[in-house]
């Protein structure tokens, strides 16, 4: 029985070019059925739009370079890697030749090697001005009406939150240290207008109320748009999600339509975004859907802890950008329901965690042992706030001639977070927490909705503390691994095969959906302030972007300083200030030195007793890699370690407004 996609493909008669770049030209394309998958470039056409003839199709490696003009608002970017392309599009997103030789004739010539040359453009493909191909045309809305508006909730007038999302405290970041390494690093931009992202993506950026790019976006977006691989470190809450989503979306829209095989039951995404937990994947999916709204690009998410059947249904409807956790993706690959053979963009969020001990084999399997095009034939982007040197070394296997980017004192915390450390014995921790919560209420400096996130070491500890807080009259909820099948955070030592077994076990499926609902419910209840205290294990440490988290309490300190950085990064996000309090006692001795260093880097007041501890303490053992590894910050390009000094071809530092010498020296 043919899948929806296969029906769709054959109906559309999309040209298919096989992996060897031999192009075959499809004839005409009958109108698509609404339930069918429609490739991005064909979506959202007016009802009754005439049959589309002659779609350019090239292989994943092939390129097509539109030689036509774009209007004056646009800045051309060159794509200097295999597979990069500028598609010349007409006002409906199809490639058009100049000279009108177009009625039923073939549009593009596909040259040997799959490089097609578009010969011109009628109308602007990408303008920012009037007459844009991608926005405002009547008739497009017929199909777009069916796309749920991801901005609907935010577009309701709200006097409290309806203000410019100015993001990072831009003034404070004028002098932010920035380091780039690698060959021919494209220069940064200062405004979104300088980057040609296309009208519909620009419109969505406006809807997000992003006024200007954050520091990491200023550097990462031009680098990625130039087709370069990237390893990027930037502080928590600094807008990394958009930094990898924008180039992916813009890249897909720019590229010539890629004919995907007829009759394939498998989903054939063009971009894959991997992240460690279901919550983070879900959050990235929500963000990416906003950025891709009304572009015709379909974003689908697949994560463990939720029934696979719904996700399969979504995948069958077609996918351009797949956001996934490694475990669930592994399952889908094993079931042959997803193929990675058309991947042009691979992004790893929280990349250091994804390549951490225990998970590297899963990621290697996905990236290197399935059917994904190798480095150099896809574009790979790795992002995190922390990037230990040994993880960089592992990660470099996935990259090709990449640029290393470090924005801010990477691996350190932001100055926006006030860090406090209190010496508290275990037995006193609860009453200390109570004092903090009372103080927070009493100061009145926080609005009623201010949220407190409390990190503990174990699931049992989380449940016990939540129970106690509730009994004391403080509405609290909890999130930890037992409440779902978190794929990384909690499965650290479980092997790939066991994960598949677990996810496939039908007896588990109802349990999975119950626990995942619990976790979803807990997060929603925290986000909305219904339960303004969330007790969490490290599963909530990375990536989660919850506005109004005013206070992070490390009830139990982690043993790894990088985990501390990510945990406290749940507050003080996007230019807002935050408070982080750590309960410290003798058990945390190994963390002392990196903690003191971190606080000093972030201009925090370090208690004298902690400094004394630090002078007595050993370095934090193997896990505290920043200090153990010798590099001052977690964000120095490991390739430079052996290449310092004269003639270092990898080095190029911007150093914020100052430029000149490396900000790290
Ligand atoms: N250009 C911008 N202007 C204003 N706000 C922005 C901009 N870019 C991103 N943001 C907002 O900043 C917040 C943090 O972004 P994001 O979650 O991508 O951070 P991050 O760097 O990935 O953090 P983490 O390291 O914790 O994962 C989000 O609420 C996002 O909407």
TrEMBL record:
<protein>
    <submittedName>
        <fullName>Uncharacterized protein</fullName>
    </submittedName>
</protein>
């Amino acid at each position: 029985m043919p899948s929806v996609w296969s029906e769709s493909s054959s109906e559309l008669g999309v040209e298919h070019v096989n992996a060897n770049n031999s192009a075959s030209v499809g004839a005409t394309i009958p109108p698509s059925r609404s339930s069918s998958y429609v490739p991005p470039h064909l979506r959202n056409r007016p009802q009754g739009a005439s049959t589309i003839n002659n779609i350019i199709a090239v292989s994943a490696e092939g390129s097509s370079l539109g030689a036509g003009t774009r209007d004056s608002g646009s800045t051309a970017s060159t794509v200097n890697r295999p597979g990069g392309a500028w598609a010349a599009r007409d006002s409906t997103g199809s490639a058009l030749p100049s000279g009108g030789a177009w009625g039923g004739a073939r549009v593009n010539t596909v040259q040997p090697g799959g490089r097609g040359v578009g010969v011109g453009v009628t109308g602007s493909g990408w303008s920012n001005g009037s007459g844009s191909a991608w926005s405002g045309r009547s008739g497009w809305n017929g199909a777009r009406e069916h796309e749920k508006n991801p901005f609907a909730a935010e577009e309701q007038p709200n006097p409290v939150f309806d203000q410019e999302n100015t993001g990072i405290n831009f003034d404070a970041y004028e002098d932010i240290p920035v380091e780039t390494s690698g060959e021919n690093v494209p220069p940064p931009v200062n405004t979104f207008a300088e980057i040609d992202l296309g009208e519909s993506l620009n419109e969505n950026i406006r809807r997000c109320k992003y006024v200007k790019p954050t520091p990491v976006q200023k550097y990462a977006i031009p680098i990625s748009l130039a087709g370069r691989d990237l390893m990027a470190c930037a502080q928590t809450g600094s807008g990394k999600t958009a930094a990898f989503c924008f180039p992916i979306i813009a890249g897909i829209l720019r590229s010539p339509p890629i004919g995907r095989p007829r009759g394939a039951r498998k989903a054939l995404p063009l971009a894959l975004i991997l992240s460690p937990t279901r919550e983070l994947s879900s959050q990235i999916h929500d963000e990416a859907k906003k950025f891709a709204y009304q572009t015709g690009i379909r974003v689908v998410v697949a994560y463990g802890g939720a029934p696979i059947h719904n996700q399969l249904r979504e995948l069958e409807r077609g996918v351009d950008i797949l956001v996934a956790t490694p475990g669930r993706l592994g399952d889908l690959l094993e079931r042959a329901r997803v193929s990675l053979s058309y991947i042009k963009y691979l992004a790893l969020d929280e990349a250091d965690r994804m390549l951490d001990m225990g998970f590297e084999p899963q990621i290697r399997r996905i990236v290197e042992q399935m059917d994904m095009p190798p480095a150099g034939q896809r574009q790979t982007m790795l992002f995190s706030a922390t990037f230990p040197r040994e993880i960089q070394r592992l990660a470099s296997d996935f990259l090709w001639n990449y640029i290393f980017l470090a924005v801010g004192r990477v691996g350190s915390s932001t100055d926006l977070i006030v860090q406090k450390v209190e010496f508290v014995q275990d037995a006193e921790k609860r009453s200390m927490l109570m004092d903090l919560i009372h103080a927070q209420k009493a100061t009145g400096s926080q609005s009623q909705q201010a949220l407190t996130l409390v990190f503990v070491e174990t699931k049992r500890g989380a449940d016990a503390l939540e129970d106690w807080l509730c009994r004391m009259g403080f509405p609290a909820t909890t999130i930890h691994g037992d409440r779902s099948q978190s794929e990384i955070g909690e499965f650290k030592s479980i092997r790939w095969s066991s994960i598949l077994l677990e996810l496939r076990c039908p007896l588990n499926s109802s349990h999975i959906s119950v626990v995942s609902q619990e976790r979803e419910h807990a997060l929603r209840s925290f986000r909305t302030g219904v339960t303004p205290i969330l007790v969490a294990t490290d599963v909530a440490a990375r990536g989660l972007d919850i506005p109004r988290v005013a206070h992070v309490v490390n009830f139990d300190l982690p043993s790894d300083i990088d985990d501390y950085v990510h945990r406290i990064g749940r507050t003080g996000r996007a230019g807002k200030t935050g408070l982080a309090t750590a309960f410290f006692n003798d058990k945390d001795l190994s963390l002392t030195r990196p903690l003191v260093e971190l606080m000093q880097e972030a201009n925090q007041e370090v208690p004298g007793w902690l400094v004394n501890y630090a002078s007595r303490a050993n370095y934090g053992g193997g896990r505290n890699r920043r200090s153990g590894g010798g590099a001052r910050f977690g964000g120095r390009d490991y390739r430079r370690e052996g290449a310092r000094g004269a003639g270092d071809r990898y080095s190029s530092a911007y150093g914020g407004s100052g430029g000149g010498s490396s900000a790290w020296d």
